[in-house]
Backbone:
């Protein structure tokens, strides 16, 4: 940890006052990897991060998200962050931010919500024991 002492001087025209403030200097952390990047729309996925330099201590999902300790960086349900998420082709994503001090957050990654798939049918329903049967699947996305 590094600290910097800063003198702050103020004057009202008649006299000056000087106060000293000690500021903790934080180095940068360089984000390198988030895992996993995909998970269910119901939330609950625990994310892990790799960084160089200062290790972040907090994560946040979306600009308005609540800071979470990094060891409990659990993705919220999509319904809770829908207004902060973006969607392309029906795939929703939320920005993931990291912080070393729970005050200043930097964009680190995106998390992509995967909606569940329901298998409607498999055709044909049977085939030879040796395998080799080509299947046709019909499915719909829920959520």
Residues:
């Amino acid at each position: 940890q590094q600290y910097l002492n800063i003198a702050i001087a103020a004057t009202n025209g008649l006299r000056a006052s000087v106060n000293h403030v000690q500021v903790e200097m934080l180095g940068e952390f360089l984000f390198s990897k988030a895992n996993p990047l995909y998970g269910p729309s119901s939330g609950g996925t625990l994310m892990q991060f790799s960084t160089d330099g200062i290790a972040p201590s907090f994560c946040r999902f979306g600009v308005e998200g609540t800071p979470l300790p990094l060891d409990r960086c659990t993705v919220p349900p999509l319904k809770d962050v829908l207004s902060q998420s973006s969607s392309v082709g029906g795939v929703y994503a939320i920005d993931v931010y990291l912080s070393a001090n729970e005050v200043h957050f930097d964009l680190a990654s995106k998390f992509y919500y995967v909606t569940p798939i329901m298998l409607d049918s498999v055709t044909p329903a049977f085939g030879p024991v040796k395998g080799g049967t080509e299947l046709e699947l019909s499915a719909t996305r829920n959520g």
Q: What stands out?
A: The longest strand covers residues 2-11. The two ends are 47 Å apart (CA to CA). Helices lie at 78-81.
